[in-house]
Every structure is written in C-alpha cells, then in structure tokens.
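Translate structure to sequence.
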C-alpha cells in the first residue's frame, strides 16, 4: 500500500521491538542509496543545490521544447494558411482566364473546327470498323449436347 500509508497505521517503535535485530538496525539508520531505487509512494525531499540545479535544468529543457513545438505548430499553421490562400488565388486567376476574350475565341474556334469535321464526315455509326482494330464480341453460352 506504500510506505506512507503503513507509517500512519502502525506504531513504528512497537514494530521495531518485535522485529529481529537485523531489521532493527536497518530501521534505526537512514539508508543512502544511489542508482535506480524506486521512490514511488514515498515523500522525496530534494532541497540540495545539485538537485535544485538539476530540476531547474529539466524545467528549462522542457520550456525550450515547448517553445520549439509552439514555433513548429505556428509555422505549420502559417504554411497551411498560405497554401489555402494560394489555392484561392489560383482558382480566381483560372476563372478570370476562362472568362477572358482571347480564351473564349480560342475555345469557340476549337468547337467550330470540331463541328466542321463532324459535318464533313457525316453521321457515323458507333460500330464503324477501323483498319487494324480487333472487334471482340461477348462470349456465347455453349449448348448442352444431347446424349
């Protein structure tokens, strides 16, 4: 349940008396350990200059990372906005170009040339044979043989 909960519920002095001599020694003397000791569930006092400096360094690193992330997000938002603006401007330019008299004249010329060609050829059937073309018909179902 964690060291803090146990110390509130149990009288440590009575517990030390009931424990064996090895445990009594361990509980009477504070233990300093280095490395990966878990301090989960225990209050950690970190007031030494080195610990405070390390905490401040971590906070500064987090602040730099946060600022870099905000800058990256702002650049991405600005780029997205610029792309949207460019697309709108391109669409506007395309509409203006389509409505321009020169483009209209060219388009009308293309349409009239196509109409003249159709009129010269006359009406053509959809199934008009073309030299070198292969006509593939749908497969016919096979008849069942009488036995």
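Result:
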């Amino acid at each position: 349940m964690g060291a803090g909960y146990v110390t509130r519920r149990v009288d440590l002095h009575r517990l030390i008396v009931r424990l064996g001599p090895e445990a009594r020694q361990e509980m009477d003397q504070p233990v300093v350990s280095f490395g990966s000791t878990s301090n989960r569930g225990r209050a950690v006092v970190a007031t030494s200059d080195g610990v405070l400096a390390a905490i401040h360094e971590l906070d500064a690193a987090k602040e730099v990372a946060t600022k870099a992330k905000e800058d990256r997000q702002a650049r991405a938002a600005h780029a997205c906005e610029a792309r949207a603006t460019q697309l709108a401007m391109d669409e506007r330019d395309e509409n203006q170009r389509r409505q321009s008299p020169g483009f209209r004249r060219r388009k009308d010329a293309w349409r009239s040339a196509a109409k003249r060609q159709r009129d010269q050829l006359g009406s053509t059937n959809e199934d008009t044979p073309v030299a070198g073309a292969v006509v593939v018909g749908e497969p016919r179902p096979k008849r069942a043989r009488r036995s």
